[in-house]
Design brief:
The complex is a heterodimer of chains A (about 650) and B (about 375). Chain A is built from 25 helices and 23 strands. Chain A is of the alpha+beta class and about 650 residues long. Among the domains of chain A are: about 55 residues; about 375 residues, DD-peptidase/beta-lactamase superfamily (Beta-lactamase). In chain A, a hairpin with a 4-residue loop joins strand 13 and strand 14. By secondary structure, chain B is an all-alpha fold. Chain B has one domain. A 3-stranded antiparallel sheet of chain B has the order 1-2-3. The two termini of chain B are about 45 Å apart. The chains are: A alpha+beta (about 650), B mainly alpha (about 375).
Amino acid sequence: MSSSYDAIKNLHRERLLFTRRVVAALVLILLLVAVLGLRLVELQVLQYGYYETRSNDNRMRVVPVPPVRGLIYDRNGALLAQNLPSFDLVITPDQVAHVNATVAALRQVLPTITDDDVQRFHDRLLKTPRYRQIPLRSNLSPEEVARFELDRYRFPGVDVAAGLVRDYPLGTAASHVIGYVNGITETDLERIDPDLYQGLSQIGRAGVERSHEDQLRGTPGTKIIEANAAGRPLRELNYQPGTPGENLYLTIDARLQAVAERSLGDLDGAVVALDPRNGEVLALVSKPGYDPAMFVQGLTQQQYQQLLSDPHHPLYDRALLGTYAPGSTIKPFMAFAGLQAGTLTADKPVFCPGYLQLPGSSRRYRCWKRSGHGWLTLPDAIAQSCDVYFYNVALNLGIDRIDQILADFGFGRISGIDLPNEKSGLLPSPAWKQRVYHQPWYPGETLNVGIGQGYLTVTPMQLALAVSRIAMHGSGFAPHLVHAYGDPTTGRISAVAPQPLRPIAAHDATIWGTIVGGMEKVTQDPRGTAYRIGHDAPYPIAGKTGSAQVIGVAQNVGYQHAQKNVALQLRDNALFIAFAPAGDPKIAVAVIAEHGAEGALAAAPVAREVMDQYLLGQVLYHDPNAGRSADTPAAPASAEAGAARRRQRSAAAERHP
Amino acid sequence: MSRSSLETLTPQPVGRLRRLLRRGIDPWLTALLLAVAAIGLATLYSATGGSSVMVISQAERLALGLVVMLVLAQVPPEFFRLAAPWLYGVSLLLLVFVLALGQHAKGAQRWLDLGIVRFQPAELMKIGMPLAVAAFLHQRTLPPRPLATLTALALIAAPTALIAVQPDLGTALLVLVAGAMALFFGGLRLRWIVGALLAVAAAAPLLWYKFHDYQRERLLTFLNPQRDPLGAGYHITQSKIAIGSGGVFGKGWLMGTQAKLDFLPEAHTDFIFSVYSEEMGLIGALVLMLLYLAILGRALLIATRGQDTFQRLTAASLALTFFFYAFINMGMVIGLLPVVGVPLPLVSYGGTSVVSLLAGFGILMSIQTHRKLLTS
């Protein structure tokens, strides 16, 4: 029983000691209880009259004052998110005799009340103390308010409450950047500090509204109101305002955002534009967007299902979450890798016979131009997007060195932009393949990576960041959306300093010039794959087209043939990366047009229009293929472009520029 | 079915159930705890203005706590003694952890987020502390010698300090009480007790300096509620109005006006006793206090029947901690003690405290039901 035998002699004594202590504790406790009891008698018997009067006269009540949410501006001061006055129809269940009858009668007066409104009301009814107001319908129109006021006498316990409703003037165009606010859920309540949300019913749910929730929200204040015997507020006695939320000044240019969105036409896709000199995100478009106002009001189950089952996935932010094969847009980075590692000499010509065969294999790795490019140096190989040239670059580098240098450009990891969700894409390595597929790495897979196919996937954000690194000859800044916070009470604006990234050091400074020269040829050289959008631009553009396979093509089937006959959702993705002006970069752009088939036709014009808007303040470029639609084949604009196009059409390739 | 046939059909199971009840749980404690919990649910229904959802979620927590209690009651006390150092050690580590990377909730770091489960390590310490001190003293001769006393004090001080800087004064106080009680029942010498009280008095100014603003505010408001009747003193003023206006017989269940009209903040959590006293009056309040006293009495009886030092000290300190819980809450809402944020045990809404409290009673029952009939 006891742990030590030498204690046996003390056992009895210890027990006695314990019992004495218990008795002492009991005495103390009875004393304490007596104090409690006496205090209760004092309050409830001796001072009963006083407190009863105070209870009946209790008219003062502390009510939280919700803070006004911060506004969101674009870089030029245009409003992206604001608070508009709204009128809500609210019911206090405690003051209503028959809730269901009242709701039914209200629907007679206000036929705009929907079944969904009633459903939401009943959901809240179960979860809210009955003395609190519960909204039945939000955002009444002035006509509805007037209509209700006429019949108000019939509805004790029903009020029109004035409040603010979040509004997004840009609507769908910036939905993925700004996000939205909507109702606080049970799950939120476990996570948030209820003191900070007193009087608030909504919380930032997506986009900047979510990632900068703490700055935008502010802190609630309190007011003391005098109420009548029924609890109805009569007047305000004391008002302690809280702190309004901070205003956010985004780096986004609303006009640029609109141009990018419109320019994508009917195609789904994403556009990311950065200022390479400081990492500011000038435009971040994912198309299609969604209407944030729907979320602010509260979605019905049916609306939510519709959004989820929409084949275009409007809730999916392609710019940050979309992982795509980069296609030929990877080639400038491969070129840098080759030059940096010393396995590639820029001016040493390489012969392209239209395919490459690995020793000991019968498989032909084809160039998009089946007839071959002939002898090419690096700038021409970039300009004409020769696959065979880059097969050789990749083969000489090997997958390990490729991975290492692509990682320096930010591929394979998130950019760290200040938005809630982002994907890292995939930089495949032999170790990764062994882990996931339990298979060894094959040399042919290195070739595929060399032209941006195979396992390699990137996000549009990564592409934009990577091309801005080329523009800046290796230096770069972390992409960010907020360039300043504004204090609405003092008017003080505090700027956010750009965060420099670790520079990519080229062992020879001329490497950057060589790569940029090749990318300029893409838009300036008549044989360049993006000549049609670049040759007439008033500023030099350095770019690179790309298109990435969505389906595999059998060895012997002509690729173009395949493309013509496949359904839209199986067509190639079109990509384009660029920066301009080439010698003095002010903007870097990455465009992906899903199933746009060809980078030069579907993606490059979007980038050109975005750069026009930003650098010239207007869109000069007239797309001959205006109203780019996936369903209407593009008509060639000029003899040259037509030739380029015919060239491409005649080429049976696995992939092309 | 007639009575006789029922008896003839089911003597086996009924007898077995009765034996299990006698063997595995303590019917007195169980009945008293259930009575308090029932009062709690009824008051909660009123305090939330008739929210069945909140009542149901509270009932679920109580059910979970009761299951934990019943399970622990089946474990032999020896196990708790051997597990005590581990429980204490893990809780201490978690407390350090929570300070390092705890989540900010209400400006205080208390929660540890394990992905699916979030809990406050301080709750674990409420059980770990009395067990550890009791297990430690179990191996010493009593009354404890100076070295043993100092070691026990260190055992108590470390977690108390960690919880106090979170800052969670209420819980720190309860953990301190739990450890100090074990030491007290272990026969801590009078000179140490007097010394400790003097030390606290001497340290008071220093503590004041260390307090957060809101803690100072609470203390000042406690000393003089009229100082800021519409700010920090508002809670306590409204609470006193609620209780006082209840009178001897109360306004009747669901008839209280203070919470209904939203005058009384936190009516369903820390200030639920105000709602109860408003509606049930002095008689109701005394009944609830007697129930708490009865629970305490039963637990102390179990403690005196404990078969070794560990069992006695554990049972007595768990019992006293439970009582202080109730005492601090009631004292706070009737304006006898400063507002420290301690819920009323088994009555206040929410809180992981329901589970840790009932776990403590599980250990008490284990001590009661695993007695070997050697003495008597």
